[in-house]
Design brief:
Layout lengths: L1 H17 L7 H14 L3 E2 L2 E2 L2 E5 L19 E10 L2 H10 L6 E7 L2 E9 L2 H7 L14 E7 L2 E6 L2 E7 L2 E3 L9 H31 L16 E4 L18 E4 L1
Parallel strand pairs: 3-5
Antiparallel strand pairs: 1-2, 3-7, 4-6, 5-6, 7-8, 8-9, 9-10, 11-12
Length: about 260
């Protein structure tokens, strides 16, 4: 496995250089990936460790700061005293920081790597990573983020750009949109087609019954409506379940 971590470090370092950044260098990237990988093998209070590391310069943590900073933009908070990053300290900090919304801020200083703070307000990015509905999000502002997602499962990102990872003792060089692939789409279509057709028939029957009972009063104020009202028939949404013995509701509209 050290060979895979070394190969992943080479790949991440190469892609960081291609993006035009001079840091972190190959040695620092390798050290971060190795500590993250070893950290996933540890447990704290009978739970395996999950979390993330964000490489950022404490003097200029935001690589591309926005022209106008919003309240929910990711923010760095410095520790009173930076702590040398080891596997043991990584485990302790990961357990203390909510991985859903925070990340450990780290930086290289001479021959050692230190944890100098916490990056907070990452909920929007994590929501987007899980493909949940979101109108927009702010990506991680650090130069490099290393996530610990499971035992021996680590990934590296620049913002929301995937740089590489290890999963199931294999080197991953790119992320595939599995749910959007033709193979999965074809398989799912054949499996769900009978259910979709059955639902469609039921909805079509309900809509036909509803339209048949549609009534438009020719007389203003007819049907017990308030003055100036128009009495309409059933306009029940197709997904609203309605028993056959329930009367068709009336919708009143005033001109």
């Amino acid at each position: 496995m050290p060979d895979l971590v070394d190969r992943l470090a080479n790949q991440v370092a190469s892609r960081i250089r291609d993006l035009g950044f001079s840091e972190p260098n190959r040695r620092v990237i390798g050290a971060l990936l190795e500590m993250a990988y070893l950290g996933t093998m540890r447990s704290e209070e009978v739970r395996f460790v999950k979390g993330s590391l964000t490489f950022a310069d404490p003097k200029r943590p935001n690589v591309s700061p926005p022209p106008r900073r919003r309240l929910d933009y990711p923010a760095f908070t410095k520790f009173e005293t930076p702590e040398i990053l080891t596997v043991q300290s990584l485990v302790k900090l990961s357990c203390a920081i909510d991985r859903w919304s925070g990340s450990i801020a780290v930086y290289a200083r001479k021959k050692e790597i230190v944890a100098w703070g916490v990056l907070d307000q990452l909920v929007q990015q994590n929501v987007a990573f899980h493909r949940e509905p979101t109108e927009g999000y702010f990506a991680n502002p650090g130069l490099l983020t290393v996530t610990m997602d499971g035992i021996g499962d680590i990934s590296a990102y620049h913002g929301d750009m995937f740089l590489g990872g290890l999963k199931a003792q294999a080197l991953i060089t790119r992320e595939n949109d599995a749910l959007g692939s033709n193979f999965v789409s074809d398989y799912a279509f054949d499996a769900f087609a009978p259910f979709a057709e059955a639902i469609g028939r039921v909805l079509e029957e309900d809509e036909t019954e509803c339209l048949a009972s549609l009534e438009l009063s020719p007389k203003v104020g007819d049907g017990g409506n308030r003055k100036g009202g128009i009495s309409w028939g059933c306009l029940t949404p197709p997904l609203l379940h309605r028993r056959s013995d329930m009367p068709c509701p009336k919708i009143t509209s005033s001109s």
